[in-house]
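ok here's 30S ribosomal protein S1, seq below lol
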Amino acid sequence: MANTMEEFEALLNESFEIDTPAEGSVVKGKVIAIEAGQAIIDVGYKMEGRVDIKEFANPGEEAELAVGDTVEVFLRQVENARGEAVISREMARREEAWDRLEKAYADEERVDGAIFGRVKGGFTVDLGGAVAFLPGSQVDVRPVRDAGPLMGLKQPFQILKMDRRRGNIVVSRRAILEESRAEQRAEVIGNLTEGQEVDGVVKNITEYGAFVDLGGVDGLLHVTDMAWRRVNHPSEILAIGETIKVQVIKINKETHRISLGMKQLQEDPWDAVESRFGIGTVHQGRVTNITDYGAFVELEAGVEGLVHVSEMSWTKKNVHPGKIVSTSQEVEVMVLEIDSAKRRVSLGLKQTQRNPWEVFAEQFPEGTEVEGEVKNITEFGLFIGLEGDIDGMVHLSDLTWEGRGEDVIGDFRKGDMVRAKVAEVDVEKERISLSIKALDGDPFAEAVGGVKRGSIITVEVTKIEDGGIEVDYEGAKSFIRRSDLSRDRAEQRPERFGVGDKVDVRVTNIDSKTRKLGLSIKAREIAEEKEAVEQYGSSDSGASLGDILGAALKGDE
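and the structure came out like this:
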């Protein structure tokens, strides 16, 4: 009998355990009624509870619930003051959701959810019972200004982090977008080949080029590949949203970068450069760019040449090219050299104008008088500005006949207008020598015009010195040394002459460089003696020199 009692007790206890579910667990129940937005659920053993219908809704959807449905709910309390069970679908779903999410996290699978609220630094996402955090940076590939259109939509997310104990879940929408974009890119890139011609839409324009959408993948069209001619900014040629034809130049399989070109679809103007622009030919061009070393000139669309700074001007040396030409200016240039391999044309600007030194030499031959402004004064002379924007130089030695150039250069000032004679024009060296002293004629040359070596001339004594006497001939000064005053040693005394004396002398030398006459009384006496001997007898006829000279003097009288 006792046996039966024990069995009965055991059965009773078992039925109690089965019949009364423990608080804090998930139980099954049946929907017996729906009223005022709530579902009344029978969880067995005469226990009923109420749950808001919206707790049954999936994220981003309406709740689908009907009388008679079996549902799982969380039993929080067996009985409250109203004698009802306190049940929650929310909590049942949370437990359910965590189990499901942990499995998805472990398998690296996507989960569905809906963004339903905004919090600091991001958004809240309902993952079908569990609430996750979506950081602002993980919403989209590019920063999102307005997340309104994304709210409440059912969409996939990737779980980045989970901590059940703390109830933390962090998710990303961006990871999924990137993945699908990568797949899309790979597919588009797989269909492209280098050299292929495709249509694309200009999506973005930068300083260095434009990004072109080729249907889910962007390619870069560099500014240098837009046209054969120089393009300063891509916006000159393209506009955002425009559809253009491009050629795929290069596809980098690793980085998936695509380089595009537009000019490759047009004819290369360089193919005809050598035939169109022969060396030595002159063409009209437009200045496109100016640098320190020269100016670029466009001869035709896509063909540019460089005028090096040394080929810009005959006269302006060491000047920045920007002082000679300006951007967009039309200029005449000569083709000097073509290098098709390097796609370079060397041009000359000065070659289209005549060499100003040649022009000057024609207009102002040597000996012509010119006038100009003193541009510069240096230790070796004056620089004078002349016609044709060129300079001539008056050397110190060409400033004056009298005295030293060093002494008179101080009389000149920058900006003075001076006259001078052209002494020499060297076209090769681009040098013009001028002379100021030549204007007055050469007093020395005028004085000694008819005088030759060996002539006997009459001079006037102007000064007596220990070493000899200074004399003047028609304004040309000379000095007769002591040893030349007489053939007789005893007579070689300067003091036997007086200032103002007239003396006959023989010319021994004419030096137009040092502008000096070499004169000698001794040489005159020797020449006279020689002449007398020749005329009046031979020196060996026994007649003495005194007799001959006496006879000669008598004959003179």
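fwiw The longest strand covers residues 25-35. kinda neat tbh
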